[in-house]
Amino acid sequence: MRQNLQPQLPIVHLQIDHNHAFELLAMGQVLDEEATINDLVFADLTSGGARIDTGREGMTAEQTLRALMVKQMNGFSYQELAFHLADSRSYKTFCRFGINDKTPSKATLQRNIKKLRPETLEAINQIIIRRAAEEGIDRGRKVRVDCTGVETNIHTPTDSSLLFDCVRVLTRLLHRAEDLVGFTFTDHYRRAKRRVIGIRSARSKRRKNLYRDLLMVTHATVSFAEDADAPLMNAKGLNIMDALAAKGLAVELRDCIELTHRVIDQTERRVIKGESVPATEKLVSIFETHTDIIKKDRRDPLYGHKVCLSTGFSGLVTDCVVEDGNPSDSTLAVRMMIRQKEIYGRPPRQAAFDGGFASKTNLQDIKDLGVKDVAFSKGRGLKIPDMAKSSWVYKRLRNFRAGIEGMISFLKRCFGLRRCTWRSLPSFKAYAWSSIVSANLLILSRHMLN
């Protein structure tokens, strides 16, 4: 049985006299007063046609959202979250679990929290932003925009490690095929592992020979995987459950084979033929295939996604966009201002950007949207009178822009935005939005308490 809210509030622990307890109380008051938030969460929890009037009682919408806030605020894993909900009086009260209520397990928490879609969390963030405007905390008249990189949960990719990942996963799936339908094959896992270890310490001349042998092992494993497709799809003498498992395994093998061919192709081009493979054509993980290569200045490449953020002078994050690929900052400035206009129903009066966003076209287009003063931290040929009405205003906006660096650091250090630990692109976006919503709700509560 699934409920939006508990029909009767449970008996909870008394609030303790601590600053964080008062913050949690203020956050809870905002969530209680904005009833639309729980409706949005409830719609996600009940999507998919599941009945809500039968079965045992599950987590309510408000419990799910509040548990997500606690998780992101503290960087807890699901196992740690389950422990702290059971152990902490303050978190148990905030998440609306009574004194005698049994708190959910890590599996239950994961199953419910992962149902929240990025679109839902973005809508919740806009409700929080609207509440801040109503309270006079931040009306969106002054914004700053910058981009940062967020890692996906993968190891640093190398050609040899990617080939080994392919062999390892294919071998695991083939062993499952062996158990289901009796398919026989030669296990090359240990040989592949030895070649990867050898490549790490070998000199350049010997390394190419080791790569050739590793490629040969990968080709052989792929060949076995392709041969397993027919026995799995045409399995006879199995019960219904095993037959369905065999067909599902065949689909998994096909997907992995396709990715393995891509890894083999890029390795042969790079290592054997000495070609330069464009970043847009590279596959850096067979587990998180959506991962982009983010290269900025002379820094080491980052494997994840470029995220463009807008914040107000209050510190609230008003907007977030997970970019596809690694677009230039100069292509994002106008779009972020258009989104600001859609969020608030009017353009901001002043906007501040990093130097990478600067161009004469961007300046003109942003001014045409109705933004009065625009400041790029590096002019790149633009004159101050063209950007702002005075040098004093320009300097104030340029200094104001630097504050977004601190907000990005705050999100990464305290709300887990440095590295996304959820799998798939929709989950990556949901993770980013969950960090932002949690941070915004905490910042809003602090402003209200002050």
Any chance you could write out the topology, listing elements then pairs?
Layout: H1 19-33, H2 35-45, H3 61-74, H4 78-87, H5 89-94, H6 106-113, H7 118-134, E1 142-151, H8 159-181, H9 189-201, H10 204-227, H11 229-233, H12 240-272, E2 292-294, E3 302-312, E4 317-322, H13 333-344, E5 350-353, H14 360-368, E6 373-376, H15 384-387, H16 391-401, H17 403-414, H18 425-449
Parallel strand pairs: 1-5, 5-6
Antiparallel strand pairs: 1-3, 2-3, 3-4
Walk me through the structure.
There is one protein chain. By secondary structure, the chain is of the alpha/beta class. It folds into three domains: 19-116, no CATH class; 135-154 and 290-426, Nucleotidyltransferase, domain 5, CATH 3.30.420; 159-281, no CATH class. It has helices at residues 19-33, 35-45, 61-74, 78-87, 89-94, 106-113, 118-134, 159-181, 189-201, 204-227, 229-233, 240-272, 333-344, 360-368, 384-387, 391-401, 403-414, 425-449; strands at 142-151, 292-294, 302-312, 317-322, 350-353, 373-376. Strands 1, 2, 3, 4, 5 and 6 form a six-stranded mixed beta sheet that branches. β3 and β4 form a beta hairpin. The radius of gyration is 26 Å and the shape is flat. The mean pLDDT is 91.
